Amino acid sequence: MSRLQRAVLLCGVSLLCYDIITGHDDHSHDIRMGRFPEDFAFGVSTSAYQTEGAWDVDGKGESIWDVFTHEEGHVTDGANANDAAKSYDMYSEDVQLLVNLGVTHYRFSISWSRVMSDGTNSTLNQAGLKHYSDVIDELLKHNIQPVVTLYHWDLPQGLQDTGGWLSDSIIHRFRDYADVCFRTYGDRVQHWITFNEPFITSWMGYETGEHAPGVQQDNATYLVAHNIIRSHVATYRLYQDKYRVTQRGLVGITLGSEWYEPKSEGQPDLEAADRALSFHLGLFADPLFKGDYPETVKTILQRKADRLGSVDFLGVNHHTTKLVSSRGNDVSARFGFYRELAVELDVDYTYPSLVYREDMDPKGGEQRLMGFGMRKLLNYIRTTYNNPKVYITENGFADCGTMKDQKRIMYLREYSNNVLQAIQDGCEVKGYFVRSLLDSFEWTSGYEPKRGLYYVDFGRGERPRYPKASAHFYSLLIKEHGFTPHVRDFRAYPADRDEFLYDHFPDDFMWGTATSAYQVEGAWNEDGKGPSIWDTFAHETNRIADGQTGDVACDSYHKIDEDVQMLKDLGVQHYRFSIAWSRVLPDGTPHSLNMLGVQYYNNLIDALLAANIQPMVTLYHWDLPQALQDMGGWMDSAIIDHFDNYARVCFEQFGDRVPLWITFNEAFVVAWLGHGIGIFAPGITEPGVGVYTVAHNIIRSHSRAYHTYRRHFQPLYNGKVGISLDIEWKEPLTLSQQDHYAADRAIMFKLGWFGNPIYGSGDYPEVMKRYVGEKSRRQGYTQSRLPAFTEEEKRMNKGSYDFLGLNHYTTNVINYQPNPDSGVHYEEDQDMRSRFDPCWQQSEASWLWSNSWGLRYVLNFIKDRFGNPPLYITESGRPDSGGKDDINRIYYYRNYTNEVLKAIKLDGCNVKGYTAWSLMDNFEWLEGYHQQFGLYHVDFNDPNRTRTPKQSADFYRHLISENGYTMNSRVMTDF
């Protein structure tokens, strides 16, 4: 049989099947406009064990999944569903989610062991019975029809102990259980599903043992399937004879089936595809619709013709399509079912991938967008089983859990549209249910895969739910009752967000790399250098991992020539380094000027210029002279004069050769980590008052130093002065206005805290003044904990820059978290909660997850809020735990720099350069030498601190040489 003949057989003679018959290349992803029938059911699905939790409360007995997950080795990370999504207690909240979606139906399952503790009539549990009655009533109160599944894999353990589905006795036990459910709920339930995907129960539960109850028995698939079919028939007859006249409901079964596409047009593969359908779908569907097992399998079991016509509708769970090829019987296969099936199942990688980022997976993942398989399957059912009424009872896919789940939107749009096309072909499809309402326990995969339209925060006891973008899409599809341009064009984010741009950076774009004094120099007490707060902090016990310090670090104080040679090899145009304040002014004041320290920086600057590399000098990278700390440090306003005097010394000594000055690196870190929570030097804990005082003094210090340079040194040297501020992109968790405001507020509480006085109005952001002021009053303060600038200070602050330095590494996801009774604490002042998107690539640093598009969003935020100032990215990079084959760092740099290119070329952002952090592995603060950011590996076990280029150094060198990306460039083909 040819592919054309097979398609005609599936579709009949309908011209609407033309695009199926003619192949998938040109038609499979077309979205056909049109509406579903008026009485079409839109719903979502869950199951009891996956969502309810409350596994042992209110008289519930153990199920086989309770026992299975409590044993070691069955589930990823040892997870179980003891609490799951807590839907047992939160069913009212879940129903409200359904109302928000606008669904007409909700498919859920009853936990057999919740209503019958050991599975028999002798252990009826009234609390469990009442729970489902309450759920049904709550649904009906909101005009949502319950679709109830009697068995979704969670057999009472008491029945498993007597043989489970391998025993004939299960048939009357299931009938008794169904009788209780019909009698209790049948007056309000019009759609009953006896079994969900019985093939999974049969094959994975009793033959391979991968699912509960974990039995491994050759050929058990057929025996269990036989008992399930007989149980379904007995239950159907029970309803027909006892309840149909009064309750007028419908009883069906849900079967799961992939579509099986022949891998070739050869006869063996065509037969293999038909055989796959027979062994999976036909094993259950043929007896129920035709009265017998498929010809290919019926010799295994005896004919039972009385099953004919024992369904009112067929539930279909469909998720994907597989390529099928024939193979001979594998006599060595452990389990009999696949020995007889004799097929090979593959993925068709020519279809679009459904992974979050295709460039994170060399093959793009196994989940593919193949919606045509839904239509073909429905037409197969139409032609094979006399066009029964069908409900798509599950359709969806698992991803890594991103909130703006564009791939799920694409999936649901294409698959539901193929349902519509199947209806137009003449298929009797009555409803479509998305799996699933919530992220939930995904069986042996635990909580890692996410299928929900709603995100559940399993890290919090209250299990809050948040709508993903796909929830908004599905709600729109339901509201429009089909496909309109709005449904077709709905997106979670702009189409170009994840597209790679092939273009070149501007000719004058500057590439560089960075270090800081304490992290690389070493020589902590040589040649007259005074101690800094980081010397003191690191020498205290229990501060740094393994008691490590920056005493020697990379020994760059003695290795100027080696460091500059590395820079020359990279081909960078600038090198950002910092001056150790206590090396040039040991006690922090000009009275202690140390000419040996001055000479070191002169030598470094001269070596850079000789190599045609511009020095970009940071005045303060966190290492305050200890002598100034002893006098109050950044908590005392006297520091403003001290910093201005120090800056003046540096301008005088080095200004003739330094074109770019940065006053402070990451002032936020100084304020918050150093003085708010005290985990960085100098280790002060003042999270609600002192943190704001420190920031206030830093801003005023910057402004003073800027104006000192502008008045006295810029006319002489024509250099430029800026400040480096660090900011993550703050992505709203949901599409809600509250989360958008919270994300914007989070940016203004960090970037705006320092940026708005300098690059904006001259004052703190209004939202920050309002929130801190209101919280302060509520806490009993007579004035805001956020200090106020004088009018003169505002004038000095505003415009005190020639450029902005931006340090950007990662993105946070933000949601609104009202906290009216917050403590005196900077973080609690913001009324928000921060987390990471699980789809992003995690690094060796807990605070850094790779998300390149966040950088473009930050650059556009700065353009829009701060008037598009000249901007240098002064730090960007990611750590690893060592090694020279650092492919993840190459991935990071390629994607982050491409976002910079998009910001310049597509958005008009005024970005002048990119500085990789860092030139070499170095002392990474609290982590010591365990986290390594370098383009060059440093052997810290070698007294010579040998430097060796990593693969990322070679990548960065070629990127600089090519100044951008073309399809055939080395940076795209060789790395």
Automatic annotation (TrEMBL):
Molecular function GO labels: hydrolase activity, acting on glycosyl bonds
EC numbers: 3.2.1.21
First and last residue of the signal peptide: 1-23
Spans traversing the lipid bilayer: none
Active site: E394
Keyword Nuclease: no
UniProt keyword annotations, A-Z: Glycoprotein, Glycosidase, Hydrolase, Signal
PANTHER family: GLYCOSYL HYDROLASE (PTHR10353), LP05116P (PTHR10353:SF36)
Similarity remark: Belongs to the glycosyl hydrolase 1 family.
Self-association state and partner proteins as the record states: Homodimer.
Name of the protein in question: beta-glucosidase
